[in-house]
Write a structure and sequence with these properties.
The protein is of the alpha/beta class and 179 residues long. 20% of the residues lie in helices and 20% in strands. The strands form 2 sheets. The chain has a 4-stranded mixed β-sheet with strand order 3-4-6-5. It has a two-stranded parallel ribbon with strand order 1-2. It is globular and about 40 Å long. It starts with 21 loop residues before the first strand and ends in a 7-residue tail after the last strand.
Length: 179
C-alpha cells in the first residue's frame, strides 16, 4: 500500500501470512503507527509519486506485486486536506495529473503491479477527462471484480453530497485493458 495511512488494509495479513507486506505513506505519524500496530509490515516514509520504481521499495522485477490501497483521490486544487494535496508536491512527470488518485493509478502501472485492488471514484471510469488522464493504467489493466457504493459510507467524508466510489480488482494485461 503506497499510501497506507494508518494501515487498515494490513488487517488482511492474518489471512495471507506468507506474503511480504510493505506500507508507505508521506505522513510519518501514520507510518510510525503502522510499524507499531503491524510489526511484520515493512514501512517506508516516502513520497510514492516521485522516483517511482520497484527498486525504491526493495521489490524485485520478478516478484509478484499486488497493490492494495485507497490513495487520496481529490484533485490537488480542492480544499479538503489541502496540506497534503498541494500543486507543488513533487510527482514524476510521466504520472503527473491534477488528481493524486489518478497519479497513483499511473504509479501502479509504472511499477507493473500484477494486481491492483483499489478504491477510487467511479468518475475515473465514466468521465472522459479522468479516464483519458489515466489511460496508461486503464490500457494495461483488466477489471476482474468491482463493487460500487456511496462515498458517504465513509465517516467524515462527503458531508454534503455523496458520489459513487468503486472498489475494483484489476489484473495487469498489457494492451488488453479497459481502453
Amino acid at each position: 500500500d503506497s499510501s497506507c495511512g494508518y494501515g487498515a488494509f494490513f488487517e488482511l495479513q492474518a489471512h495471507l501470512p506468507k506474503n511480504r507486506y510493505i506500507g508507505n505513506d508521506i505522513d510519518s505519524l501514520a507510518v510510525n503507527k503502522v510499524a507499531e500496530v503491524f510489526p511484520k509490515v515493512q514501512t517506508f516514509n516516502k513520497n510514492a509519486l516521485v522516483s517511482v520504481s520497484r527498486e525504491r521499495f526493495g521489490i524485485k522485477e520478478s516478484d509478484c506485486l499486488v497493490v492494495v490501497g485507497n490513495p487520496p483521490y481529490n484533485d490537488v486544487t480542492s480544499q479538503i486536506n489541502q496540506k497534503i494535496k498541494t500543486s507543488g508536491m513533487e510527482i514524476d512527470a510521466d504520472i503527473r495529473t491534477r488528481d493524486l488518485g489518478l497519479s497513483s493509478l499511473l504509479s501502479y502501472n509504472k511499477l507493473a503491479a500484477d494486481y491492483v485492488a483499489v478504491l477510487h471514484p467511479l468518475s475515473y471510469l465514466i468521465k472522459r477527462q479522468n479516464f483519458s488522464a489515466a489511460r496508461n493504467f486503464f490500457a494495461n489493466y483488466r477489471m476482474l471484480e468491482h463493487v460500487v457504493f456511496n462515498s458517504q459510507e465513509f465517516a467524515n467524508t462527503s458531508k454534503t453530497t455523496g458520489f459513487p466510489v468503486i472498489v475494483a480488482l484489476y489484473r495487469r494485461e498489457p494492451s488488453a485493458g479497459l481502453s
